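Q: Given only this backbone (283 positions), what sequence would you predict?
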């Protein structure tokens, strides 16, 4: 199961306020068009602005980074790497690729396909051996140093963004749009796939969605968007609580649920939220 959740050491966390002015689209660009032909309102909303919009996508990256890295500066995380003792080996990069969950292996393979002589290529045999475990065998002592070196290479940065989109972002947005939810719901799906993986067991994305279906229906099946996303977040919290490393559910309680309770289905700024006691704002 692909899984890239970040275990934040709460003892080291202090409350902080981060303000960031995002390059916003104009009101006209974000305005919801009227349904001139009598189309359903939900259909028009999905066609308007979704998470693929560059401004919205950057907001999504900042929101995830606030939980994964305690920072809105997601572009500063290409060189991040450490073992956070969550059973997944090394966690690194802008989305938390893990040596024990296959996505780090696929990342280095993709990087090597475009840059065969890169500094990480020599670790491919070891990454294949440790895949599915928390082992560092064949990676220590220089893997983390070489990762940071690779992070200075634009080709490695490109590979990280491409794999993030292929494995996490694009599938999440596609599934959310199929369920008839707007930008907020698309982000909620994306954050769930980032942490839990795009699998079908009980604590992966497929299992979370299946659990939510026992309580509500998505808009595509005649349900209301609010009821469906609340049911999905309830199921997401349950999945998080099954694992000690993810038992703090503030990224749901004091972030995503705040936006949902405010009816901010288009994920419009300003946004204010808290994660693990830290306060953030995108204005």
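A: Predicted residues:
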């Amino acid at each position: 199961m692909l899984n890239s959740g970040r275990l934040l050491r709460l003892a080291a966390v202090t409350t902080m306020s981060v303000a960031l002015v995002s390059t916003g689209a104009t009101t006209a660009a974000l305005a919801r068009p009227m349904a001139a032909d009598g189309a359903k309102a939900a259909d028009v909303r999905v066609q308007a602005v979704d998470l693929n919009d560059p401004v919205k996508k950057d907001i999504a990256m900042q929101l995830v980074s606030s939980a994964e890295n305690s920072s809105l500066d997601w572009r500063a995380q290409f060189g991040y790497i450490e073992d956070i003792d969550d059973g997944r080996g090394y966690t690194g990069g802008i989305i938390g690729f893990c040596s024990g969950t296959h996505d780090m292996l696929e990342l280095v393979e993709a990087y090597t396909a475009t840059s065969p002589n890169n500094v990480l290529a020599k670790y491919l045999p070891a990454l294949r051996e440790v895949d599915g475990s928390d082992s560092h065998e064949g990676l220590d002592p220089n893997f983390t140093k070489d990762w940071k070196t690779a992070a200075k290479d634009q080709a490695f940065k490109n590979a990280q963004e491409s794999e993030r989109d292929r494995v996490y972002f694009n599938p999440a947005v596609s599934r959310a749009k199929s369920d008839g939810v707007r930008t907020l719901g698309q982000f909620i799906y994306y954050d769930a796939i980032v942490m839990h993986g795009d699998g079908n067991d009980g604590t992966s994305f497929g299992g979370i969605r299946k659990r939510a279906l026992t309580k509500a229906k998505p808009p595509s099946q005649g349900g209301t968007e609010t009821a469906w996303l609340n049911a999905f977040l309830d199921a997401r919290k349950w999945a998080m609580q099954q694992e000690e490393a993810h038992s703090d559910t503030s990224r749901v309680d004091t972030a995503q649920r705040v936006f949902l309770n405010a009816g901010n289905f288009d994920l419009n700024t300003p946004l204010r939220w808290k994660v693990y006691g830290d306060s953030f704002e995108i204005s």
